[in-house]
Known about the structure:
- The protein has helices spanning 22-31, 48-60, 85-88, 98-105, 124-132, 163-173, 189-201, 232-244, 260-268, 306-313, 332-339, 369-381, 401-407, and strands at 3-7, 13-17, 38-42, 63-67, 70-74, 82-83, 107-111, 136-140, 143-147, 155-157, 179-183, 204-206, 212-216, 225-227, 248-252, 272-275, 279-283, 292-294, 319-323, 343-347, 350-354, 363-365, 385-389, 411-415.
- With 416 residues, the protein is an alpha/beta fold.
- The chain folds into 2 domains: 3-19 and 230-415, Alpha-beta prism (UDP-n-acetylglucosamine1-carboxyvinyl-transferase, Chain); 22-227, Enolpyruvate transferase domain (UDP-n-acetylglucosamine1-carboxyvinyl-transferase, Chain), CATH 3.65.10.
- Helix 1 runs parallel beside helix 2 (48-60) and helix 11 packs parallel to helix 12.
- The protein is elongated.
Amino acid sequence: MDYIEIEGGVQLHGHVRIGGAKNAALPIIASLLLTTGETRLCNVPRVRDVFTFGQLLQALGANIRSDGSELVIDTSRIDRFEAPYELVKTMRASFLVLGPLLARYGKARVSLPGGCAIGARPVNFHLQGLEALGAHLELTQGYVSAYAGQLRGATITFPTPTVTGTENMLMAAVLAKGTTVIENAACEPEVVNLAEALARMGGRIIGAGSPRIAIEGVSDLEASVHDIIPDRIEAGTFLVAGAMTGGDVTVDRCRPQHLGTLLDHLRGIGAGLEVGADWVRVISVGRAQPLDIVTAPYPGFPTDMQAQMMALLTRADGRSVISETVFENRYMHAAELCRMGAKVDLEGSDAVITGVPRLHGAPVMATDLRASAGLILAGLAAEGLTTVSRVYHLDRGYEQIEVKLAALGAKIRRLP
């Protein structure tokens, strides 16, 4: 099993190009089950979650060709309707095939999902929404079996915003008869990117990016060409890397409008920022100032940047508090940071971070995708050698992060 080795204490300098967002690519790949024909997806990240999702579509009968950052997916021969546990257990997003399979073929059998161990992420919102559209559901032996004739439009109100729940309802409703309204919908850019892709196929969607989305069902969709938006979490990770190593880093081919709250917090810790149309430059101006952060659904501070910002705040000049309101078990990286000399006290959903002058390299273990990134950032800023094990988590969402960091001057390498 691979691990990452880092010799810390090097300031990062230069430009890094941001890839496509895996959290946008996965639902768009799932949406192709609504079409018959060949679709080209551009700016697709080459990460493990995308490969796994491709395997899932192939298991359903799709044909997939890849050419660098492009995928060509032909769904004209879908003839199986079960998403097996062997694939779904590794990635919660696999559950996104339920809505489109049910909408187009009237049946689906999908294993209940797995993914990172960051707390309960129930799918009951998905199931309640599909039932409102007229689906009949059965839960047996860890699988959801769903049946429907013609789905019919309905009003679906989520108790709290759910990204994958909103995406599943979008894909189910786009072929439903009549109008569907999703209230308290997730507003994330990845949801908007999916709605844009569905609109290119012929879907009729109003309000994506707001808490109220209206979908007027159509009879069929056509294959098309779609672009995956840049990954705002990858962009944020490299900006934090530049700030906490005392460096000067520019992230290129990003969408600054998707980074608003993160940029506000980077200004809050004292980093210098320059923002262009599709780039952001961060210039460290000394030791970070302490900061309080509350994670929240978009446009709030993203929970997927919490571990990276915790790593940064371990060296801030004072006391910071992070309140995690999205997932209840997303502080497992805190203990690993403490192995490097950080001072982090957990008090329920809050993490109280008392900044220290320096971190020290140590062997640490990643517990989930974003924790992996946070530990790598800590290693970049620490004195001495850090090894990060279980980096298969990292490969789920970052494409060759060690190569990109090395290009910025980091002393980092992957070892078997």
